[in-house]
Structure formats: structure tokens, C-alpha cells
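Structure first, sequence second, as always.
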């Protein structure tokens, strides 16, 4: 385990053997565990870099990088949200964390839903931010774009972030292609599985998100103990995801008080 100190934070990082992967993770702060699961094509920092300093004073953050992303190794199988969920669940077992809150963004939000479905005994609360559970949850143009996805179209901030941390920068193409194939072949999560989520769940989207308000509302109605927040802005703007940052972006623009209030409430 490596300890790293920055101007504002100290964190520990390491790798864990998880279902054939060397899974990279970082641990910040002390307190009740909150797992952070990044979006597609991303790293810990590109998704959560702006909000980790805001969450770490009150929580033990376990930030992960999923298969083929960032510093985590790859394996022969294609990417799936179910496999990612199983990987995160086993990582928590390896870290002797029996139960945690889960916060996932975009693809990570869909993974968070799968953790709640497949490993409910390990989940306390779920924050599913800009999560997708049905193909109808995004405009049809999204699927047209994904079917023609090229590395050249991947945001430069995400490409640069991968190259800065990955042991094999050539893996960028593989990660991109696997992420694209996962979306092209995406299948709806059955309503019965969404309804089976017992953990208190906070659904968040932007009002100008890739995810439609109608889809978020549908999930909210399906998940028995859920809340829905629709925040002004685009996909991930509410947490300062790296591709959404503007010169005048302020920490006060982020939804951290909303998230902390949700996490602090007693279950039920």
C-alpha cells in the first residue's frame, strides 16, 4: 500500500486480486465506507477529482478503477455491468468491508444498481448518478453514435488522463472499444430486478443529461425506497466531471450537501 500526500489530501492506494484482475483502488478519510465508481472511459480523478476533497472529511472513501480502466488490468472477457458489480463486491470482501454505501456515476451508476441487485447484503445506500437501466432511457441518437464510436471522438481529457496513469498507454484503444461494445450490446435491466432493490437509493441526473428525465422518473417509481433529484446542467456537471468543468466552476455548484444529507439519514 502506497501513501500519497497532496496539498489538500492524504490517501492510500494499492491493488487487489479480484476475479483475475489487479484492481486499483484508493482510500481517503475515515468513517463509514462510501465506494466511488467512475464512468465509462474514465478514471477515479476524471469523474470524482473535484468532489473527493469535499466528501473525504466525513467518510472513508474507497475509489475504484474498473476492468481495463486507468490503472486496473484487463482480462479476456468483454466488459459488463454485472461483472463490474461482482468485481467491486469482491474487492470489498478483500478489504474486510462487510457493508458500504455505493456512489456510481454514469456507467458506474448502472454498476451501482447491479451491486444492489446482485449483492444486496453488502449495500447500505445507493447513489446512482446518471445511471441507465433501459435502452429507451437515452435518445435514439445515442445508440447511433455508439455504433460508430471512434477513439478520435473520445474526449481528449479522458484520453490524456488514461495515458497519464495506465501502465500500458496502448490499452486506451482496447478500453475504448470494449466500452463502446458494452453500450452497443446493452440490454434492459428487467423491471423486476430494479424493483428488487431494497437499499435506500438516490437517483440524480442533470436536466440536460444524456439520461432522460422520463427514464429517471421511471426508475424512481420502480425502486421502492428511492428519491430523485434533477439538477440544472449536463451529464456529470453536478459533480464536476472533468469534461464539464468551466473556468468559473465552483465547489458550491456541486450536489455534495444533497448527497451528504441523503447518506446521513436513518434508513427507512
Amino acid at each position: 500500500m502506497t501513501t500519497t500526500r497532496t496539498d489538500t489530501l492524504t490517501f492510500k492506494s494499492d491493488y487487489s486480486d479480484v476475479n483475475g484482475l489487479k484492481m486499483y483502488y484508493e482510500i481517503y478519510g475515515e468513517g463509514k465506507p462510501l465506494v466511488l465508481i467512475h464512468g465509462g472511459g474514465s478514471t477515479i480523478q476524471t469523474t470524482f477529482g473535484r468532489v473527493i476533497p469535499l466528501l473525504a472529511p466525513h467518510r472513508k472513501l474507497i475509489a475504484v478503477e474498473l476492468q481495463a480502466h486507468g490503472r486496473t488490468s484487463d482480462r479476456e472477457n468483454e466488459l459488463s455491468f454485472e461483472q463490474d458489480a461482482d468485481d467491486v463486491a469482491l474487492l470489498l470482501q478483500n478489504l474486510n468491508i462487510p457493508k458500504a454505501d455505493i456512489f456510481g456515476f454514469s456507467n458506474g451508476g448502472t454498476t451501482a444498481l447491479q451491486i444492489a441487485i446482485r449483492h444486496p447484503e453488502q449495500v447500505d445506500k445507493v447513489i446512482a448518478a446518471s445511471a441507465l437501466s433501459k435502452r429507451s432511457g437515452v435518445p435514439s441518437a445515442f445508440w447511433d453514435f455508439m455504433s460508430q464510436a471512434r477513439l478520435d471522438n473520445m474526449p481528449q481529457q479522458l484520453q490524456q488522463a488514461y495515458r497519464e496513469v495506465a501502465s500500458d498507454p496502448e490499452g486506451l484503444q482496447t478500453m475504448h472499444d470494449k466500452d463502446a461494445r458494452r453500450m452497443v450490446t446493452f440490454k434492459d435491466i428487467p423491471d423486476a430486478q430494479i424493483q428488487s432493490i431494497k437499499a435506500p437509493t438516490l437517483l440524480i441526473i442533470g436536466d440536460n443529461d444524456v439520461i432522460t428525465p422520463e427514464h429517471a422518473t421511471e426508475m424512481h417509481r420502480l425502486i421502492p425506497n428511492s428519491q430523485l433529484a434533477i439538477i440544472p446542467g449536463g451529464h456529470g456537471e453536478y459533480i464536476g466531471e472533468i469534461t464539464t468543468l468551466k473556468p468559473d466552476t465552483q465547489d458550491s455548484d456541486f450536489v455534495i450537501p444533497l448527497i451528504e444529507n441523503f447518506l446521513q439519514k436513518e434508513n427507512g
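Margin note: The first strand starts at residue 2 and ends at 5.
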